[in-house]
Prior knowledge:
The complex is a heterodimer. In chain A, 0% of the residues lie in helices and 50% in strands. Chain A contains no helices and eleven strands. Chain A has strands spanning 5-7, 10-13, 19-24, 31-37, 43-50, 53-56, 65-69, 75-79, 88-95, 105-107, 111-115. In chain A, strands 2, 4, 5, 6, 9, 10 and 11 form a seven-stranded mixed beta sheet that branches. In chain A, a hairpin with a 2-residue loop joins strand 5 (43-50) and strand 6. The model of chain B has no long low-confidence stretch (mean pLDDT 93).
Amino acid sequence: GAGVSQSPSNKVTEKGKDVELRCDPISGHTALYWYRQSLGQGLEFLIYFQGNSAPDKSGLPSDRFSAERTGGSVSTLTIQRTQQEDSAVYLCASSTGPLASGGEQYFGPGTRLTVT
Amino acid sequence: DQQVKQNSPSLSVQEGRISILNCDYTNSMFDYFLWYKKYPAEGPTFLISISSIKDKNEDGRFTVFLNKSAKHLSLHIVPSQPGDSAVYFCAALTRDDKIIFGKGTRLHILP
Lengths: 116, 111
């Protein structure tokens, strides 16, 4: 079946512009996660949705970052007034439920964002 | 301050031998740990996990060992195969289901 999909796969934008990154989770998965991986760094947690609500927004780097999820499915990560340090691969993942209860997390291929 | 540390950025192992990837953590409240494998231009894929109530979990060629007193875990791959060449991420799960990842170790399997 279809896995987690993300679009666009690559995005080059000028500093100061806004960007929207989209994630389509696996159908039926209630939990959705956003991460980013900067060059030479590990995966950095950004935000986690359970259904449409985001119980944990603590990972968002600044107020320029926001995310929403509607209908318990598609999620959009928006970065306003992009900065060069926002350049990274943004990864989305979904899972059937809490990971510690055996839910397995599936990742999308990521969106590579380059801010020039 | 990194809560999950993978101190070896890379590791080279001969095909057929054992690969041992190490991971240390600082927060004693972590009670579930995961390993992920990542190929270039793909998202990470889940490999194996372990709960803190266990000290070992095995799945085929992959075994994860957990030493809670040392706050250390390791992933053993035996025998190592060419397709195992990838970046391996260690991760810890917080009580509110947030995953904290290490920076990864790049494993090279040599022919």
